[in-house]
User: Which sequence fits this backbone?
C-alpha cells in the first residue's frame, strides 16, 4: 500500500501501489469518500458558491432575505431561467439590487453562468474597449452578447455617451433576438429613460425591454 494525498480534500489516504504502463504512471488522486457521487455534488456546489462570491460585492453577499419585501423577493426568485428577461424597477432603497443578487446566487448554484456589471462599469468598460482598438471593442460586444445571463444594476441611472448608448442598444437588440435573457435593476420609468438616453433610442430601448422582459414593480403600495 502507498500513501497519497487527495486532490479534493487534501487528506492522506492509502491505496495500492501505482501502475506503470508504457512509461506512464497511473495512480489514484482522489480518496474513496471524495469519489462518491454525493461528495462530487458537494464539491461542484462549493465551487459554484466560490464563483458567486468572487462576482458578488461583499455588501450584497450579506443580504438577509427576511429584511426584504418577501412577496417581491419570492416573485424575483421564482423567475425561471429562459429567454424572457427580468426588470426590477422602482425607487431607490427598496431592495431591488439585493433581490437581484439573491436570484443570481440561486442561478449560479444551479450552474448558470452570469456576467454582472453596474451601469457605470458597463459604460467604462465599453468606452475603454472601443477606445483601445476595434478588436477590443468587438471582444467586449461578444462577451456581452454571448454570456448566458447579463445582469446590469442601476440601468439608465445616468446619461451615457453616444458610443456607449449605441453599443448598449445593439447588445439589448442582439440578446433579445437570440433568446438570451437580461436581468436589470433600475429606478427609471419611461420618462427618466427619455432623459438618460437620446431621443432616437430612449423609446426603442424601453419598448424592447417591455416586450422581452417581465417587469416587477418595487414601488411601495399606495396607502
Assistant:
Amino acid at each position: 500500500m502507498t500513501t497519497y494525498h487527495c486532490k479534493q480534500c487534501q487528506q492522506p489516504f492509502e491505496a495500492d501501489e501505482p501502475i506503470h504502463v508504457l512509461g506512464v504512471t497511473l495512480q489514484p488522486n482522489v480518496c474513496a469518500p471524495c469519489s462518491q457521487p454525493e461528495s462530487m455534488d458537494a464539491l461542484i456546489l462549493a465551487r459554484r458558491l466560490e464563483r458567486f462570491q468572487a462576482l458578488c460585492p461583499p455588501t450584497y453577499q450579506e443580504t438577509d432575505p427576511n429584511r426584504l419585501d418577501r412577496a417581491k423577493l419570492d416573485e424575483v426568485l421564482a423567475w425561471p431561467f429562459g429567454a424572457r428577461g427580468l426588470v426590477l424597477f422602482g425607487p431607490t432603497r427598496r431592495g431591488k439590487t439585493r433581490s437581484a443578487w439573491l436570484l443570481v446566487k440561486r442561478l449560479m448554484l444551479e450552474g448558470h453562468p452570469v456576467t454582472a456589471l453596474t451601469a457605470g462599469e458597463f459604460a467604462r468598460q465599453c468606452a475603454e474597449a472601443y477606445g483601445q482598438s476595434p478588436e477590443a471593442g468587438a471582444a467586449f460586444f461578444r462577451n456581452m452578447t454571448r454570456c448566458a445571463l447579463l445582469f446590469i444594476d442601476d440601468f439608465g441611472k445616468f446619461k451615457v455617451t453616444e458610443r456607449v448608448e449605441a453599443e448598449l442598444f445593439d447588445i439589448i437588440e442582439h440578446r433579445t433576438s437570440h433568446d438570451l435573457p437580461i436581468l436589470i435593476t433600475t429606478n427609471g420609468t419611461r420618462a427618466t429613460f427619455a432623459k438618460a438616453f437620446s431621443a432616437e433610442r430612449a423609446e426603442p430601448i424601453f419598448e424592447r425591454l417591455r416586450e422581452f422582459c417581465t417587469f416587477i414593480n418595487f414601488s411601495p403600495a399606495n396607502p
Summary: Residues 134 and 173 are 20 Å apart (CA to CA).
